[in-house]
Amino acid sequence: MIDINFQPFPKLITERLYLRQLKVSDANEIFLLRSNDSVNAFINRQKAASVVEADAFITRISTMQANNEAIMWAIVRKGFDQLIGTIGIWNFEIENAQAEIGFEMLPQHQGNGLMFEALTSTINFAFKNLLLDRIVANARQDNQRSIKLLEKCSFIKSDERDGEYISYKLLR
Predict the structure, then answer these.
(1) 48-56: long-range pairs with CB below 8 Å, 24+
(2) Nearest in space to 171 (alpha carbons), one of 139, 137, 132
(3) What is the CATH number of the domain that holds 56?
(4) pLDDT of 11-65, one tens digit each?
(5) Residue 5, in any domain of the structure
(6) Among candidates 6, 11, 22, which has minimal Cα distance to 82?
(7) Does the predicted model carry a pTM greater than 0.85?
(8) Is 119 inside a domain boundary?
(9) pLDDT tens digits for range 111-140
(10) Count of domains in the chain?
(11) Longest Cα–Cα distance in the chain
(12) 162 pLDDT band (50/70/90 cuts)?
């Protein structure tokens, strides 16, 4: 049986990163992330139009975490507190001990293994602390960086949807 409890908020630490709870002061960076054309090219969502929208997003995530419906970490470099990306787990299926994982990072921080560190740490948390048996992820077929990252973390292709997305799964 999976154990979904995000109180207190679980902080994760890697060699170069600190994964912490989103906070109101992250609104500017969340806006930059969610309004970035190159990030949004691979995510099916509306582009953020304002910092107010980013603030509302943080509030929505905080509520979901308080209700143990989802969790999202701010990815920050050790020694700094500025958000450079996010990673989260949601869409819990308790009966299948399964959840979905997703991630995004500002382009200037991509390509140097930081998301690999964040993803590996989050996967370990999901299996060891949440007791998940399966983690799923979806990537656009043209998002080669995410596909490569998922495969590097031992995710295997499980399905193709709409000719646009590829579903991946990782078993404990």
Answers:
(1) 51/27, 54/26, 54/27, 54/28, 54/30, 55/24, 55/27, 55/30
(2) 132
(3) 3.40.630.30
(4) 999 999 999 999 999 999 999 999 999 999 898 888 999 999 999 999 999 999 9
(5) no
(6) 22
(7) yes
(8) yes
(9) 999 999 999 999 999 999 999 999 999 999
(10) 1
(11) 42
(12) confident
Torsion angles phi and psi, residue 61, rounded to 5: -65, -45
Please name which of 109, 94, 105 lies closest in space to residue 146, comparing C-alpha atoms. Answer: 105
Domain that holds residue 152: 12-171
Residue 26's Cβ-count burial label (10 Å; 0-12, 13-18, 19+) is: buried
> Tokens in use for 146?
């995410």
In a domain, 2, yes or no: no
Residue 146 lies in a domain: yes
Kindly give, in sequence order, each residue whose CB lies less than 8 Å from that of residue 91, ignoring residues fewer than 6 positions away: 70, 99, 100, 136
Helix (H, G, I), strand (E, B) or coil at 55: helix
Instruction: Judge contact between 129 and 165, C-beta under 8 A.
Output: no
